[in-house]
Amino acid sequence: MPIIPINGKKVHVQELNKGAAETVVMVHGMFSNLSVYYFNIAPLLALRFHVVLYDLKSHGMSERTRDGYDLDSMSDDLRALMDALGLEKVHLVGYSFGALISLKAALRFPGRIDRLIMIEGPDPADDKTRGIMDEYSREFLEHYIRNFTDATKVQMGKRQLERNHRMYEYLFYQTTIKQDMLAEKDFFSSDAIAGLEHHPLLIYGSRSNCLRAGYFLKERIPGAELEEIEGDHNVPVQAPEAVAGVLLHFLTEAVPVMEPDGNVF
Amino acid sequence: MDTVTTTPDQPAAAAIFDQLKQMITEVIGEEFAEEMDIRPTSSFTKDLEMDSIEIVAFSEKVKAHFGTRIDFTGWLSGMDLDQLIRLNLNDIINYIQECR
Question: Which of A33, A156, A158 sits opposite B53 (nearest CB)?
Answer without folding.
Answer: A33
